[in-house]
Amino acid sequence: MFCRFPSGFMKGCLMLLLNKMVRIALTQSQSLQGT
To answer: Which residues make Cβ contacts (< 8 Å) with residue 13, sequence separation at least 6?
Structure first.
């Protein structure tokens, strides 16, 4: 990522990444449980 972007934009991207990671982790844990 470029340093030109404002901190707000960076925070938004980080939040989106976190959401994706959490969703993937949840789906993986659910599939492991077999539900």
So the answer is: 1
pTM of structure: 0.58
Residues in the chain: 35
* CA 31 to chain CA centroid, nearest Å: 19
Q: What is the pLDDT of residues 1-35, one digit of tens each?
A: 455 667 777 788 888 899 999 999 999 888 877 65
Lookup: tokens for 15: 């939040």
Cα separation, 15 vs 21, in Å, equals: 10
